[in-house]
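Archive entry: two folds, one per protein. Generate the first.
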Amino acid sequence: MGVQQAGAVTVLVLLLLTQAYGPSSAVVLPLVLVVLAFAGTLVFVRLLGPR
């Protein structure tokens, strides 16, 4: 649960920083992070969850 929340907060911070300071092409990083965080959560639950 904490890993998912940390991923969501990180994505929001990166999106806000991108909108405030960076070019629009930098939006790709937070969007890729969303996909990787979701996939990482699925792997964590599948491999390390209760059996």
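Generate the second and append.
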Amino acid sequence: MNTRIAMMLAVSLATAACQTTNAPNSIEETAVGVELPLMEEGDEPTVGYAGIVERPDGTQSRFEVVSVDDNKIRWRNSEGCEWSQSRAYARPFAPAVEWRNCGGSSGTATIEGHSGDPEWPLVVGKRWRYDATGYTGSGWDAGQECEVVGTARITTVSGTHDTYKVVCTSKWAKYTRYFSPALDAMVRYERERLAGAATDDVSELVRIEKPAGS
């Protein structure tokens, strides 16, 4: 998967415990008007890749890949939250498998399986599901159902983009992500609390930072 996509989705899956008090800001969507090119799965992220995202209040956060092993990719943000994603499942959609110091929460999750359509390439109408169990003292349902619900033209801090809109829903939150085939990146992410400790959040991609020599 492209590093930029993985970064933004890593944020969305592992920082559900971070305290963001504002409700998700809605964004104006207009019709794309043309058929978007297929958005294929890109390269896996490597150590040192990072992304800067901005929230509606103007604050920015940095997210960086800090290690990659045979099974997991580990991330860290500028607030000290660390989380890992399984290399066996598609990023950025699959739930994080462990997290530490994320809004005061630490825990793990086991992904039991995937059903439905393959995630990549993104095509309107695709649907899939992850069965997963989270553990933060006791077990809870961490499963998610996802759908590529359509295309939308949106304007973010980085410009105007023609995007695929993907919505994933769990018992605890609804995640909406906008992916730009032209940039090969997710340019906007929304998390809406439905129940439990999940909090609302919105972030938009500002820029990518790559390690020297890449």
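Annotation attached to the second fold: Residues 1-23 have pLDDT under 50 and may be disordered. The chain has one domain: 3-209.
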